[in-house]
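Entry type: protein chain
Record version: 2
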Amino acid sequence: MKKNVLALSIAAMIGGFAGAASAQVFPNTTMTAPTATTLEQSEGGAGHILVVPYFTSQNDNMSVFHVVNTDTVNGKALKVRFRGAANSDDILDFTVFLSPGDVWTGSVQGNENGSTFLTNDKSCTLPDIRGQQIQFVTDRLPSDATAAQTKEGYIEILNMADISGTTSAMYKATKHVNGVAPCTSDVLDATLSINPLDATSVSAAKTSGFDTPSGKLTADWYILNVNQTTTFSGAATAIAATGGNGRGNFVLFPQDETNSAATAGNAASLTADPLLKAGIVKPVNFDFPDLSTPYLPTTLTPEAQASRLTQAVANTGVSNQFALDTLISAKTDWVLSMPTRRYSVGADYTKAAGAAGYRVFNAGVVDLAGAAYFTEANTYVNTTNGLICANTSGYTFWDREETSKRNGAVISPSFLKGLDFCGEVNVLSFNDATGTSVLGASVARTNVNVDYQNGWGAISYTKALPVVGASFIKLMNSGGAANGFSGTYGITWPHRFAK
């Protein structure tokens, strides 16, 4: 495994912090008390944690996302992390500072070395990557990983802290003036010495303008293919910290690569990621916070946090539509993303795929009944590509007429088995075993053959899983080009799910 973590954090080699975490991980200080008691999937689309279920730069696709701070009083400090589609490895992360009412945008595009990230937005980032093509990093992927391994995945966005007080240093450094944030370098660089585990440091952060995070973030995404004149779009899955005043813990960690958070005690108190906890992947400052870092006063351990988060998005099955009509050259892909799976199981790339110990579990991430979500029993390893697969109990597909196809006596529904979720972000292609289908996915792609040109399907699991995603349907008006207008269209329908 490669060890160059500097490129992964894209950060300066300064700052750092010290201190040990206690049972109450984050100290009580002069900041507004965090009293939120639970995590819930937000039906309104606004929250403290956002998950963009899929990004891709495959097949000339470009993925674009917009993050909106609907809070018109407080700014926000955000952790943005891109994870790969195979086994949820960190392939890029950085910090973003939004001013009140701000919108921040960025895009992912492909080149011969994988994916690149670009933001031309005027909001502040740390490090300052505005206007630069930043190459995604393979340092935490297998040593034989190809460029394609960074071309698909999902995005985590976490509100680490609020920025308050119109006269504070941080507020003035990040608040837009005539449409541009000053991004005062010495003020932003000072965050590299913040220690959220130390009461004195947190009190100083309060004086500089930080406060506990109150959420109110939304995000939208779209996948654009200019050559094929096709666009898909949707909204990020939002998780809100609710109850009390809706504020979480102050979890602004330094965006640098020092390992002062890497002591066994601190790592164990800050993440449920089994690879970081075991030291298989050496934890450093930029690894925190992740989505399992204790965010509520009621989640005193990362396992409790990861359990609450997984419970918020877990479901027993999803359903959606598909279309394969030959008359309109229709194709369909389903994206099935499991954004919290990493906190239950990771892949140890120092071992051969399928070897003993390749799957590293955290049995402390559990459902409401106390049972682990991912275990030896409901997962296995695809030894060809190293993907960890989750078992499903069945797929059922119907045509639009419920009982038959128009061209023959085929009884529906049809029932298929063995289409398990391999990879963190599995793309299920319909009747396209060798082609690029809709999204051009290749990292964790499964093909399913159905007997119908159109209809709908339902997927059930052997136990509840944290699955989000959508159906991507592409179609073409065959007479469009001849008549002088674009004839290619994209439709995105979010999965419906059962709890």
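Comment: The longest strand covers residues 152-163.
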